[in-house]
Amino acid sequence: METKYAKAKFLDVFKYSFGGLGSNLAFFLVMSYLTFFYTDIFGISSMVVSGLMLISRFIDAFTDPIMGMMGDHTRSKMGKYRPWIIWGAPVLGFLIFLLFTAPDLSPNMKVVYVYAVYIAYSLASTVVNIPYHSLTPVMSQDPYQRTVIVSWKQGMGTVSQFIITIMALPLVEAFGGGKQGWAIYGALIGILTTAAFWICAWGGKKYDVCDMEKERVPMNMAKDLKLLVKNKPMLMLMIAFGTDVLANATYSAVNMYYFKYVLNRVDLVPKVASAILFAGIILLPLLPALSKVFGKKRLYWLGSLFSIVPLVVMWLRPTASVTILMSMMAVFGFISRIPSNLGWAMLPECSDYGEWKFGQRADGLMSSSLTFINKFGMAIGGFIASFFMGLVGFVANQEQTPQVLNMIVFLRFGMPVLGYIASLISMAFYEITNEKYSQIRTELDERKKG
Question: Which of 100, 238, 347, 415 could form a disulfide with 186 if both were Cys (CB 3.0 to 4.6 A apart)?
Fold first, then answer.
């Protein structure tokens, strides 16, 4: 007999997906323009900015899991996770404005200002984004609909990418350019971020409910972390997802070097990026149907396997024609979206597994673990790229030696291959199949009835 799963209404899913817009507006704005703003507009050295980014990652290592556990142990009439989103969103929006505000300060006070504001922004982002991701398993118990929910979230993330990458510079100029233009644009993004997260919390209102009569379980960090350590599927997912992120962060870090020094075609950067982006957009509406046909575990494994093919082609022929390059990167953009998006859809099943196996849910902790591994992989990937480039003697703005060129090619194409191979190995030990999840869900429902 087919298992019946509790599902969310489409309108609520649509409203919840606005969290993807709010989350990624700030993400793309900071990733694309903050370093430029600090160095060229505010007058901060690039070394100060790089140190700031590194320190923030160490802070995330502690705050992400703590926020996850705090969300899991919150009890209020507004739910477990929605209060953090509702009250945290305007704080996050205001800090986005402050990030792109350049007050008239002394050089030393500028450093103090950017450290204080950026670290506060990182903390506010954690307070809002961890509960936002934690709502996915709360919204629906149906594995197919959870994939649909993640696809809608990622789709909204793509909208935010367009808003930032296409509209940022023209709007900054329209608002007066320079410090004034960036401050007004930062305020605009802060307002949009706040509104998007409020709509997201509205979508989760019917599902994020707490039994106020039930005795509150105090937060025990050691006990909660054991739930993560003993959850084998979650650990395997973290390894698979983390190695993908690390490898892809490495190739992103050397992307400009590949086009500048290997191909001598910097003009191809936006064209190839567009091919990858649009191919990924095509995949999004297909992902739920593909996961239903193949199952999430098998689809993740196949996505990782076939992502290797275009990378190997370009690794062997790094100076291939533009047609081959564009074709291979479009194929990569389509297939690689499978594991990068599917990981978030598999996360709720790991939470259900933990409840089934150990009798306690930890949606916030599980979500924070995946967000942390995402941030950690990005930071380490960037470090690996810089370290190995320096190791072979890279010097900017001059003709590079064959050793440097080979290292650029390896980091751009070979390193992601190694990451996907690690994902294949890890995912082989991931034990939640469609059949296994049906058993888990059935037994959980029987326990609640009993």
Answer: 100
**What would the pLDDT profile of 224-250 be if each residue is shown by its tens digit?**
778 888 999 999 999 998 888 887 778
- d(CA 108, CA 106) in angstroms, rounded, equals 6
Handedness of CA 141, 144, 149, 154 (dihedral sign): positive
Q: Does some domain include residue 308?
A: yes
User: How far is it, in rounded angstroms, from Cα 350 to Cα 228?
Assistant: 10
pTM: 0.75
Collapsed DSSP state (helix, strand, coil) of residue 344: helix
Residue 290 belongs to what domain range?
220-450
Q: Which pLDDT tens digit goes with each residue over 331-381?
A: 998 999 899 888 888 888 898 898 899 888 777 888 888 888 877 776 677
Burial pattern 352-377, b for ≥16 Cβ within 10 A else e, equals bbbbbeeeebbbbbbbbbbbbbbbbb
* Dist CA 331 CA 329 (whole Å): 5
Q: Which of 45, 32, 41 is nearest to 183 (CA)?
A: 41
Orientation of helix 322-358 relative to helix 296-316, angle to 10°: 150
Cα gap 167→187, rounded to integer Å: 14
Grouping H, G, I as helix, E, B as strand and the rest as coil, residue 123 is helix
Q: Is 176 left (phi over 0), alpha (psi -120 to 50) or beta?
A: left
Regarding whether 296 and 350 lie in a shared domain, the answer is: yes
- Which of 426, 377, 364, 376 is CA-nearest to residue 233? 426
Number of structural domains (the chain) is 2
Let me know whether 202 and 240 are in one domain: no
